[in-house]
Every structure is written in structure tokens, then in C-alpha cells.
Design goal:
single chain; globular; alpha/beta; 7-stranded parallel sheet; 9 helices; Rossmann fold; about 15% strand
Length: about 280
């Protein structure tokens, strides 16, 4: 396919571009930052005219797209004022989804987030492992993610051929960032706000590839996390100590993720390959 990746120069976006090209797809990156050249064009996605035009065609780049992978956003709270995060991210996502529909592009995979399910989890979730039924926003970035999922649920009603897949990523990690995991492996306070979850960027990119292959009309939401926690404390102990009284709905593996990836495993064939212990040569 010919696929556009928005936010193509970000941590997850760049890994996704690399994976999709390795899969044999033609990939065009769209981002604000970067050097224009083969396979990349600078686009301000807050400008609907630029967004639609770039999806319809870019001279010397492409003359039409088969799919959109949408990852462009201000990535976390605090980089800019909250109102700026909200207006930028909500505008960009609406422009991308609307432009894709106007351009007749019926396959979209986009980055949702653990922030759409309760991060930083000061309020305990209903149960563990937390699955895709959880929806709660506790900051401005998360509010946009919740609103995006609500928006696309309506868009797929408008067009029976439209396929939108929301991948709820947890904290994206790359090679070179795992030493900190080993240093804090016994500290239950470390990454508690993420319910001790993480995802390697390469596995996050693999989830995009699988979601594109599995795309069918309608909306699907998947949690995307590593299969283990980022600690060496048993998962059952973490829950019992940090979230006393919260039900656990299954027998947990020793270090099993508390952000359930069962749905992605069953429907996409998703299985993380880059776990922190193996990346550090500890297993």
C-alpha cells in the first residue's frame, strides 16, 4: 500500500515508518519538523487545507494514498499550556480524519493512549488487568484521546466502508532507555502512574502493521503494551499493595502486564518481542 504516517519523525512515528517500509509498503511521512525529500513532506496539520491537499497528492511524492497512520500530536502535557495541547491535538486529529474521508481513504490507524483509560490512575481502575472497556481522562492530553475515540465511533457510522483502529499505547520506550528499568526494578513507586507498563517503539510499530493487515469496516480499540511490567516485583503484589481491594479478573503471571493486551493478541496476533530484560541481556 501507499501509506502516509503523520508525526513521522517522532519516537513511535519513525519506528513505524521503518517497519512499514520493511513490510514492503510505500511510506510518505508528514510532520512539522524534518528535511523535505524523498518520502517526506513538511505539513502543518492544524491547517485543514494543507492536510487535505497533502492527502490528495504531493507533486514528486504521491498521487493518492491507500491508508493513513496518524501519530502527530503534542505528545504529553506540560510542553505547552494545556489549552494549546487541547486545541492543537483536537484540531489535528479532526483535520486528519475529515481529510481522509474527503479524499476517499477508508483505512486509518491512529495512536490513542493509556491516558484515555485513566492515567495517571490516582483513581483506581475497576479491575486489573485494565482492558479496553476503561475510559477516563485525568488530564488535557487524555481528554483529547477520549474525545478522539468518541469522534471516530461516530465517523464510522457515517461511512460503512470506513475502518478506524485506535491503538492505546502506553509509554513508548526505545533502545538505550532500559538501563533505568534495571536501576528501579524493585521500586513499586517507579512508573506506578503507568500501572508499570511500557511498550518498545518497535513493538508499537509492529502493532500498526498488524492493525493495517486486519483492518475491517468499523472502529476497533486495542491496548498496546509490553507483555510484562517494567519491574521485578510480582504483578499480584503490585496490585495488592498499590490498589488494595481492586478485583483481579485472572490469574496473573509473575510479571504480567496490568494493561491487558489479550484483545490485541487474540484479534491481531500481537506479541511483543522487545522486553526490557531481554534488551538488557537479563533473560
Amino acid at each position: 500500500m501507499r501509506i502516509a504516517v503523520t508525526g513521522s519523525n517522532g519516537k513511535l512515528g519513525s519506528a513505524t515508518v521503518e517497519r512499514l517500509r520493511a513490510d514492503g509498503h510505500e511510506v510518505i511521512g508528514f510532520d512539522l519538523g524534518g528535511t523535505p525529500g524523498e518520502g517526506f513532506t513538511r505539513v502543518d496539520l492544524t491547517d485543514y487545507g494543507q492536510t487535505l491537499d497533502s492527502f490528495l497528492g504531493v507533486t514528486a511524492r504521491h498521487a493518492g494514498l491507500d491508508a493513513i497512520v496518524h501519530m502527530a500530536a503534542i505528545p504529553v502535557n506540560g510542553l505547552v499550556p494545556d489549552v494549546t495541547t487541547f486545541h492543537n491535538n483536537m484540531t489535528v486529529s479532526f483535520n486528519v480524519f475529515q481529510a481522509a474521508m474527503r479524499a476517499g481513504i477508508s483505512t486509518i490507524v491512529y495512536a490513542s493512549s493509556i491516558t484515555a483509560m485513566g492515567f495517571p490512575f490516582e483513581e483506581a481502575p475497576a479491575f486489573f488487568p485494565v482492558d479496553e472497556s476503561a475510559t477516563a481522562a485525568n488530564n488535557t492530553y487524555g481528554l483529547v484521546k477520549v474525545m478522539e475515540e468518541a469522534m471516530v465511533a461516530q465517523l464510522v457510522r457515517w461511512d460503512p466502508n470506513l475502518s478506524i483502529t485506535a491503538l492505546r499505547y502506553t509509554n513508548v520506550t526505545v533502545a538505550g532507555e532500559y538501563d533505568r528499568f534495571a536501576e528501579r526494578a524493585g521500586d513499586p513507586a517507579y512508573r506506578r502512574d503507568l500501572i508499570w507498563s511500557y511498550i518498545d517503539a518497535r513493538d508499537g510499530a509492529a502493532a500498526v502493521s498488524l492493525a493495517l493487515d486486519a483492518a475491517t469496516p468499523g472502529l476497533e480499540v486495542y491496548n498496546i503494551a509490553a507483555s510484562d511490567t517494567g519491574l521485578s516485583v510480582p504483578s499480584a503484589t503490585l496490585v495488592a499493595d498499590a490498589f488494595p481491594g481492586v478485583p483481579v479478573t485472572k490469574q496473573l503471571g509473575q510479571f504480567e502486564t496490568l494493561m491487558s493486551i489479550d484483545k490485541a493478541r487474540a484479534r491481531l496476533g500481537f506479541e511483543p518481542q522487545h522486553l526490557w530484560r531481554s534488551e538488557l541481556g537479563l533473560s
